[in-house]
């Protein structure tokens, strides 16, 4: 596909100069409209053959559009030290534009797998797995109000050779003048890789658009007009709601793993002191071990209100070096976070190697609070199970140990703890009107929690279901689970 376009497309100077003023005015008007409505953000991916003018096309977009709402994210093929210590997609999530903004991406998530495939460092099966990961990423962005425009610039072989020779002879080489894997030496292999990329990743939500680049004016006008048309179409469709199948089958009573938690488990005070000391000591040893420097850890705490998440987290952090961990209490998203895909705020908090991130509530709020309270559509939370599984699979593949806990108490125990919080002055801050409102939806939250565990407990990120009716039992169970997960990852 990437080499099948008519490569000799061109436009007269008169026609170009006639169309550009209107295009520029329309692009600016569209940008300002999106700043008001915040319907979606736009990501423009620019790729293609060496010498095809990718940098020049980007420069022209910056000339035509309002730079206040336009950014360029250029990624080196070799990640920085900060990026190397985190999963590969972290740097792309970190830089996602807010709704109403446009980001031009140069050296995108396609660069590494295509480059490795062209240079023979990635076999066909591995290449297709990489492309499947990209598809999942782009599908989620599209569902999360991101307009994806992917351009591939192509040239006739003679024209490419001429341009590269001119660049090589120039005394003023651009910093990124050669990518080394789409030049003449690798042209045929790059075309084969491009065909596979087009086959697997040119989708309805993120199609590839081939741009003949022999004539710079034709190239840039085509890009600008395509961007404008896509933005207009997406803006006009902003009120179209997705349709989904019913999430619950009526007439069927389902018992989930959460319903089956044994709430009678207890631990005596003397045993508790002994076991807490033992497991905290072991956790300190493991996280200080040199092998942990090649790993990192993410701990997720979910559960019934007043189930003791904070107390369990404190027993974990007491064993850790404060320099190497951070606790993230997750509440309602800020305006900045609402303007980006819901996983964005969690990707930004992924720890680097040798470090630990502890989430007091997490990305699972999408399938719990947001589901029950109607803060997102049914289609949104239904697709979230797969999106979360893919997210966690990528973390695990990078070497991040994932511990997920559901802390459970009975409805009567929750009521007792709520009342106790109201009566004790230094615990008043823990009880809010929202807690009481949520309690009225106990059954709805129980169903949502059961579905969550059933659909997201995986081999690489299993849920640990903990009875927190007795806090001592819960705290020891949480510590022990952390230790055993680290031992398995570090020593097999």
Largest sheet: 5 strands, parallel
Count of DSSP H/I helices: 19
Number of domains: 2
**Gyration radius, to the nearest Å?**
26 Å
Per CATH, the class of the largest domain reads: Alpha Beta
Please name the CATH architecture of the largest domain: 3-Layer(aba) Sandwich
Structural class: alpha/beta
Helix content: 40-55%
Brief account:
The protein has 492 residues and is an alpha/beta fold. The chain is 49% helix and 13% strand. It has 19 helices and ten strands.
Explain what this protein looks like in three dimensions.
- The chain is an alpha/beta fold and 492 residues long.
- It folds into two domains: 13-236, Rossmann fold (3-Layer(aba) Sandwich), CATH 3.40.50.300; 269-491, P-loop containing nucleotide triphosphate hydrolases (Rossmann fold, 3-Layer(aba) Sandwich).
- It is 49% helix and 13% strand.
- α1 packs parallel to α9 and α6 (124-143) packs across α8 (187-201).
- Residues 11-237, 267-488 form the Polyphosphate kinase-2-related domain.
- This is Polyphosphate kinase 2.
Notable traits:
Rossmann fold; five-stranded parallel beta sheet; alpha/beta; single chain; 13% strand; 492 residues; 2 domains
What's the helix and strand layout?
Blueprint lengths: L12 H25 L3 E8 L5 H11 L5 E5 L6 H4 L5 H5 L7 E5 L4 H8 L5 H20 L2 E9 L2 H13 L17 H15 L6 E5 L3 H21 L32 H20 L7 E8 L5 H9 L7 E5 L5 H4 L5 H4 L8 E5 L8 H5 L4 H21 L1 E9 L2 H13 L9 H7 L2 H15 L6 E5 L3 H21 L1
Parallel strand pairs: 1-3, 1-4, 2-3, 4-5, 6-8, 6-9, 7-8, 9-10
Helix pairs in contact: 1-9, 2-9, 5-8, 6-8, 10-19, 11-19
């Amino acid at each position: 596909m990437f080499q099948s376009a008519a490569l000799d497309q061109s436009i007269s100077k008169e026609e170009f100069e006639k169309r550009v003023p209107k295009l520029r005015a329309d692009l600016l008007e569209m940008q300002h409209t999106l700043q008001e409505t915040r319907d979606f953000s736009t990501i423009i991916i620019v790729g293609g053959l060496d010498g095809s003018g990718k940098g020049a096309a980007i420069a022209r977009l910056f000339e035509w559009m309002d730079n206040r709402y336009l950014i360029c994210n250029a990624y080196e093929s070799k990640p920085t030290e900060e990026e190397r210590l985190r999963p590969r997609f972290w740097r792309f999530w970190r830089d996602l534009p807010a709704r109403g903004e446009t980001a031009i991406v140069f050296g995108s998530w396609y660069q590494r797998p295509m480059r490795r495939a062209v240079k023979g460092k990635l076999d066909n099966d591995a290449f297709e797995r990489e492309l499947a990961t990209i598809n999942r990423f782009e599908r989620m962005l599209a569902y999360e109000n991101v307009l994806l425009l992917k351009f591939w610039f192509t040239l006739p072989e003679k024209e490419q050779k001429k341009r590269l020779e001119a660049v090589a002879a120039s005394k003023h080489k651009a910093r990124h003048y050669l990518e080394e894997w789409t030049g003449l030496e690798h042209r045929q292999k790059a075309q084969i890789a491009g065909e596979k990329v087009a086959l697997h990743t040119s989708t309805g939500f993120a199609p590839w658009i081939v741009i003949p680049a022999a004539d710079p004016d034709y190239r840039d006008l085509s890009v600008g007009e395509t961007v404008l048309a896509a933005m207009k179409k997406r803006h006009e469709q902003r009120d179209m709601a997705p349709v989904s199948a019913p999430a619950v089958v009526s007439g069927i009573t389902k018992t989930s793993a959460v319903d089956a938690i044994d709430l009678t488990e207890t631990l005596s005070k003397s045993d508790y002191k002994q076991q807490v000391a033992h497991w905290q000591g072991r956790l300190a040893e493991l996280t200080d071990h040199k092998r942990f420097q090649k790993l990192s850890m993410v701990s997720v705490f979910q559960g019934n209100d007043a189930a003791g998440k904070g107390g369990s987290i404190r027993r974990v952090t007491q064993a850790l070096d404060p320099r190497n961990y951070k606790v993230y209490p997750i509440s309602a998203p800020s305006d900045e976070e609402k303007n980006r895909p819901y996983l964005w705020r969690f990707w930004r908090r992924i720890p680097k190697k040798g470090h630990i991130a502890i989430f007091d509530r997490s990305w699972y709020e999408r399938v719990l609070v947001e589901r029950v309270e109607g803060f997102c559509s049914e289609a949104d939370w239904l697709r979230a199970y797969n999106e979360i599984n893919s997210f966690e699979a990528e973390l695990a593949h990078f070497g991040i140990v994932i511990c997920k806990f559901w802390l459970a108490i009975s409805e009567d125990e929750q009521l007792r703890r709520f009342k106790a919080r109201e009566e004790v002055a230094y615990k008043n801050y823990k009880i809010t009107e929202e807690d009481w409102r949520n309690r009225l939806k106990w059954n709805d939250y129980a169903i949502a929690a059961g579905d969550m565990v059933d659909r997201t407990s995986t081999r690489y990120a299993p849920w640990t279901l903990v009875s927190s009716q007795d806090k001592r039992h819960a705290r020891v169970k949480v510590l022990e689970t952390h230790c055993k997960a680290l031992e398995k990852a570090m020593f097999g």
